[in-house]
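Single-chain item
Fold in token form
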Amino acid sequence: MSRVAGPHIGFVALVDGPVIGGLSGPGGAVSVRGGGRHYNADMSISLPVLKTGPIRPDYARGPASLDAVQLLRLSVTDRCNLRCVYCMPDEGVDFGPADETLSADDLYAVAEAAFSVGVRHFKLTGGEPTVRRDLPGIVERIADLEPDDISLTTNGLLLPRMAGELRRAGLDRMTISWDTMRPQRYDRFARGGTRALGGLDGLYRGIDAAVDAGFERLKFNVVVMGGLNDDEVADFARLTLDHPWTVRFIEYMPLGDSTLIEQDPNGIGRAYTVDNEQIRNRIREALGPLTPADRDTEAGVGPAQVYHLEGARGRTGFISAMSKPFCEACNRLRLTSTGELRSCLFDGGEMSVLPALACEGETRRQQIVDLMLQCVRMRPEVHSSRGNRAMSQLGG
């Protein structure tokens, strides 16, 4: 695969600030106006997100119907072999006891209950899902349901040993996290474990392994962080000219406790969020017009707005959860690796499936479905400005 080469450029801070953990932190205050309440560590709130204003617009209404759910995201583990700055604090997070992680049978039971009420898309996440050795077996069990789509979100580092087996088990698609093309930046973003796993070259080997295994139409998630990697967006978009890939630019979302949140003077992390409209403009300036693509031709049922550059084999996508929340069109539920159903990535709607999993047969299935119904009814109309759980615990 072709790679974009270039000299290493260190972090370019948008504003002056102290350097913490190798990253330049914002020094200016972030003003938040509106009618919301002040955030504290013990509560999630409803504040304007990224753009200031009195209230969310009318389109931001979350569907509270189980009929709206098309996708179930299954976190198979909270463990990860990296400690990315937008996901974890400097000291990392405390992983849950291994014996509290849902078994393959448990995950299948929840997937089967979801399938029984019309859910046809399943996404396997983590933590980092490939650290779980029985992942191919989990894929194979869910594939027995004959859903429309089974996909995986991964950092890609363990794909050289697992990509082929996952393909044979029935995995349809992969989304790989890739936030920078610069080796030193990659090490700073990902922190622990990168050298042992090969750093950025290890990621490239994982991408090659995925393509060799038959996952040719890969998706890549690029979390854009102001002053840290937003100068690379045109390079990532350029990849779509020669590859049948979808590169998706995701506005940084403050979730749980992370290094970026710790470095924000207001403790919210908004200083690192870049509006995707700015990203689109940068790509247009560097590479030409972006033409909207037919969303129905894009694999999956995700929230990305999809475009293509002139003559490109692939596509660019934009997930704008902060500047333009898509809560009114949310079509997913999440299951954590410890058995909590969750209706929103940021906040709201946690229901434990553990009591239901202790039952058997039709009773178990019906109780899980009932919990899903209760969970979607607890969806917030619009998510808060900061999530109350770490990304590694929720699987994105």
Q: What stands out?
A: Residues 1-62 have pLDDT under 50 and may be disordered. The domain at 66-394 is CATH 3.20.20.70 (TIM Barrel). DSSP finds eleven helices and 14 strands in the chain.
